[in-house]
Design a protein that fits this description.
0% strand
């Protein structure tokens, strides 16, 4: 897939996930990484998957650095 199209589709999907999880960035990121079903399965919490937990922490660290 073309990088531009990939970025557009990915950002649209992330926007959908943010709506699905009421603007909760961490849950949206967890769903982006592990799937929305996993977040719902674990009671709308970040699933206990090390990869997903590390992904959310890393992206949020970058996000917090950029929005200062």
């Amino acid at each position: 897939m073309e990088p531009k199209v990939n970025a557009q589709v990915g950002s649209r999907y992330l926007a959908d996930l943010l709506r699905m999880f009421d603007g909760d960035k961490e849950l949206a990121l967890a769903a982006y990484n592990a799937g929305e079903g996993a977040v719902i399965k674990y009671g709308r919490q970040i699933p206990p998957y090390p990869e997903t937990q590390q992904y959310v922490a890393k992206v949020m660290r970058i996000y917090r650095t950029l929005v200062r």
